[in-house]
ATP synthase subunit beta
Amino acid sequence: MSGTPLLGELRRLIAVEGPITIERYMALCLGHPVHGYYRTRDPLGAAGDFTTAPEISQIFGELLGLWTAEVWHGLGRPAPFRLVELGPGRGTLMADALRALKAAAPDCLAA
């Protein structure tokens, strides 16, 4: 059976430590420091394995920025005000949202 270099490492690990959990298997497949999926390629974008809405068009992020401005005004323009993006990626979503937010409610960025 042929495979990737990681296959040999997984076999050695299981031979020494016994069965591993699905969680550990996936962590190694995705994040192994040498052979992991995220270490050997950029999965995002046209040349990658998948893309996200912000990478296709800035409209999604801009709408989030405009929605944020509306919510901030509706809350009485509080300060401090934090807008946090909890997603991995290139920061495209937040860049688009902040650009629209700056145009719609520049005071919000200072809050």
In short: The helical segments are 5-17, 22-31, 37-40, 53-56, 59-74, 92-104, 106-110. The first helix runs from residue 5 to 17. Residues 5-40 form one domain.
